[in-house]
Amino acid sequence: MQSAADRRAAGSLGRRVQQIVQHPLDRPEMRTALESLATTYSYQPASAATTTTPYTQKHRDIRHEMLEHTHNIDREFVNKLAQVNSIFGELEDCVQALDQQCQHLRASINHTRSITANVATQASLLTEEQSELETRQDLAQLLLQKFVLSAKDSQTLQRQIDDEFFRVLDRLDRMRRECQGLMVGSRGESGQQGVSELLSELAQHQDQAYKHLLRWVLSQIRILNRDTPEFSMRLKQALGRLVAHEALFDSAVVEISAIRRESLHRAFITALTRGGPRGTPRPIEAHAADAQRFVGDMLAWVHQACASERELLDTLFSHSPSLQTQAQQQLLANVLEGVSRPLEIRVQQTIAELQTPSAVYRIDSLLEFYASMFASMCLPDTPFIRAVVQLAVLARDKLAQTLNALAETAIADSAHIAPTLDLPESLHLLLGALADIVHLYEGSTTMALAETEPKSTIADLVKQVLEHAYSEIRSTIMQAEGLAEYEKRMLELNVLSAVSSTLDASTYKQLDISGHVERCQQQLEAELVQLLKTKSHLPFDSIATETQENVDVLADAVNQFNQSLKTAMDLDISRLVSRLSNHMWAQEISQHAARMFTEEYAELYKQIRGIMEHGAGDLLLTPETVATLL
User: Fold this and answer.
1) Mean pLDDT in runs of 10 for the chain (630 residues)?
2) 110-140 CB burial, b ≥16 within 10 A, e <16
3) Which of 68, 210, 425, 443 is 20 to 30 A removed from 385 (C-alpha atoms)?
C-alpha cells in the first residue's frame, strides 16, 4: 500500500510528464519540467561531455524509462493478482469446508433439540421455581429485618440504661407482638415452625433485656434507703416496663418494700429516742409519763409517715398505670411493718400501766380512730393493720376490764346498805367513770365513725356494763334482809335516779331507764298503798255482819285510823318516801299513793255507811277529809 506522500508525489510526476509530452521541447517551461524530472529520478550524466546532450535525447530516455517502468508495474500487478486469485481459491475451499461443518452442526443441533425437549421443560420449571425462591428470599430478608434484632440493637440492650435502651426495648416488645400475630395468621407446618423460632429468639432477647433492666433497678433502688430519697425519671420508667413481667416486678417490689421498711423503722426509732435535728422536736419517749400524748404522738408520726410513703410510692410508680390500688396498698402495708413491733410494744406497756377508765378510753379512742384511718390507706388483712387493730382491741378489753372491776365492787358494796338507803361510794365511782367516758365519746370522732360502721361501739360497752351492774345490784337488793319491800323499791329507785342523773338517758335510749323507773314507781306506789291499808286497821278486804261485837271492833278500828291521821305518824306518806334521793319522784309517788288509797277508802266508806248508819258510821271520816289529811 502506498502512503499519502507517495500518492501526492506520483500525481505531481504525472502532471509533469504530461507537460513534456504535449508541449515542444525547446520551450522554457519544457526545460524546467525536464530538469525537474531529472532531479526527481536522480538522473546523472555519464561524463561532463554528456551534459551538453540536447534535451531531445533526454526526452526519449525518459519516455523509454517510463514505458519500462509501466511494464514493470503491470508485471508486478499480474503477479500480485495471481497471488490474490490463489488466496481466493483457498478461501473458497475453506468456505466450502465451513459450510459442510455448519450443516453437520445444524444436524447435530436438531438432533440434540429433539433429545433435550424434556430438559428444556424442566429448565423452564426450574426457572420459575428459582424466581419463586428469589421472591421468598426477598420476603425472608424483609422478615429478618423486621423481626430480628440487629447487632447494634443487641449491644444496646446490654449496655447502660438510657433512652436508646428503652427505644430498643419498645421495638423488641412490638416485634414480639407482631410476630405473635403472624403466628396466628401463618399456614402450614413449616411457616409456623419458622415463626416459632423467631418468637423463641425474640423471647430470649427480651428475657435477657428485662433481667438486665431488673439488675439495674435493684442497683438504683438502694438510694431509697434514706429519709427523703430522690430518684430519677428512668427508674420510674424502668418500673413501668417491669409491670408486664410479674415475676421480675415482684422482685423489684419486694426489694423496695424491704428497703423502705428498714428506713422507716430506723426513722421511727430515731423519733422515739433522739427526736428531730438538734433535738427539735423532742423525742416522743420524753412524754411517756403522759399516756395520751405519748400514744397520740406515736400514732400521729406513723400516720404522717404513712402519708409520705404513699406519696413516695405514687410518684415511684407513676409510670405503672396498670398497677392496681390494691397492690399499692399492699406495698404500703408491707413498708409500715417496720414500725409495727416498736409501736406495739410501747402501746401495750402504756395500756398495762393505766388505772382509770377515762385514761384507758382516751387511748382506746385514739387507737380506734387511727385504726380506721390506716385501714382506709392499706389493705385490712396485713400485719401492720392487724397490729393496730389488736392494740385497739387490747385497749377496749382493758377498758371493759376496768369498768367491770368497778362494777363488781359496786355490786359487792350494795349488799351493805345503810338504813338511810344511801348508795355506796363505789357505785358513784362507777357511774362517774361511765359519765366521763360518755362525755368523751360524744365529743370524739369515734361517735361519727360508729354511725357509719356497723360494729361494736363504746355505747355498747357502757350499756353492757351498766345493765350488768344494775341487774346484779337489783338482785342483791331484792335478796337483802332487814328491808321492807317498799324500802327495796325505793333503794332501786335511788340507783335508777343516780344512773339517770349521771348519764343522759336521751342519748342512750337503748338503756330503757325510763321504763325501769316507771315500773319501780308503780310497784312502790302499790306497796305504799298496801302499807297504808295495813296500818289503817280498816277492813278493806271484807266487812263483817252487823253484830254488836263486830260494830265495837269496827268502831275501835275507825277511832285508831282517825287518831293516826290526826297525829300524822304511821300514815304519813311523805315521811315514808323521804329517803328517795329524787325529791320530784318522791312527791309524785306520795301523791299517786295517797290518791290510790283515797279511792279505795271511798269504796270502803260507802260499804260501812250502808251497813251501819250509826255508831262507827258516824265516826268514819269522809273521803275528802282523808285526802286532805293524807
Assistant:
1) 54 60 62 62 47 59 82 88 86 89 87 77 82 75 67 78 82 77 61 71 82 86 70 80 82 86 90 84 90 94 90 79 69 88 94 92 92 85 89 93 93 86 89 86 63 61 87 88 86 88 58 80 88 76 54 69 64 82 89 86 75 54 73
2) eeeeeeeeeeeeeeeeeeeeeeeeeeeeeee
3) 443
In angstroms, how far is CA 208 from the centroid of its own chain? Answer: 27
**Among candidate residues 373, 380, 374, 256, the one with its CA nearest the CA of residue 320:** 256
Cβ of 14: how many Cβ atoms within 10 Å?
10
pTM of the shown model: 0.64
Residue 109 burial (10 A CB sphere; 0-12, 13-18, 19+): exposed
Rounded to 5°, the CA angle 253-257-259 comes to 120
H/E run at residue 67: helix 55-115
CA 36 – CA 42 distance, rounded (Å): 10
- In this structure, how many other beta carbons lie within 10 angstroms of the beta carbon of residue 258? 17
Cβ atoms of residues 283 and 273 within 8 Å: yes
Polymer length in residues for the chain: 630
